[in-house]
């Protein structure tokens, strides 16, 4: 549509240039018709452009709503990602704490391992000593080697103490080894659990990041689409603005042409009145001359004139033509008047008066003027438009639904002159004349009954 509209506008401009290049002398109703056709083309183009603009605007609005929904999802994902990030940070801090605990435990384990090693060395020494002395026999040797009873008692006490110490060392050795193994298992399990939780959190965050990336991609696509649509809409709006400016220019040209035709109609009316006045003057002079001749003959005649020999002749107007500025445009009955009406198949605001009669009933010009348009219209059917000059003011009459057109654009017509025949062309329910009166040029309809004797 963008590629086709500019050539059309260029064509209209070229047509306007050719049309305006024609000489301005004489009546050029065809030029007015061309201007109005060009304006109609521009208006159609404006409607197409406006529809395109509205479609783009609707699509842009829909995309914008879709984009807002995606951005809302992205904001929600941002919140979830931040939550996961905080959980990961908290877990990393816990892991660091656990690692610090592990380091401290390692130092404790190292000390415990040293104690266990020392005990192992002591126990090995004791075992070697027992092996050299034959095991428990060494305790007997110790007891029998006493030199007195009191020394024997002391040695018995010392032996018991050593044996209890050996049992204590062995028990502590077992307990320390069990504690060491348990601490190692707890720390390693805790660390493994934390590392596993960290992996899960990182996987969840990675999935959220992926979703966010996908949504960002969709947003970028929508933004690119929005930019394309907005660019196309701006182009359509520019074309619409150009077409609107051209339409305004055409309207000015049409008004100027209508005014020019109105001037011609006014001059034609002035010329008609001048000729009528001249004719009346010549008729009066002829009547005066005839009366003078009659008087002269009467004075010289030997026979007096008889009153019964004088016959008065009158020239009455045709029955269908009224006196004054306007006359009824057709015989028949009025079926619809000017103004609002309740019809399902026709305009609710009637801009004229309908006069019904048989098909073929003569249609006459309601007043003196110049035919500004004569042609066909989807609603009016065959129609005629006449521009009149009434006391220096422009008026326009319209005659629609004709079965036949008996005049042409640019023709000068007189009040009561037949211009066509009644019909039912266009949007019509039966044979009738649709008659309109406009103040000035076409576009300012008034009630015809206020001006024309109907």
Automatic annotation (TrEMBL):
Chain segments annotated as coiled-coil in the UniProt record: 28-122
TM annotation in the entry: none
Domain Peptidoglycan hydrolase PcsB coiled-coil: 109-182
Keyword Zinc: no
The organism's place on the tree of life at top rank: Bacteria
Keyword Coiled coil attached: yes
Alphabetically ordered keywords of this record: Coiled coil, Hydrolase, Signal
Low complexity bias locations: 282-292
Biased composition (Polar residues): 297-313
UniProt cross-references to Gene3D superfamilies, sorted A to Z: 6.10.250.3150, Glucose Permease (Domain IIA)
Any GO MF annotation of the entry: metalloendopeptidase activity
Residue ranges of the region described as Disordered: 226-246, 274-335
SUPFAM superfamilies found in the cross-reference section: Duplicated hybrid motif
Domain M23ase beta-sheet core: 349-448
Record protein name field: Septal ring factor EnvC, activator of murein hydrolases AmiA and AmiB
Native organism: Bhargavaea beijingensis
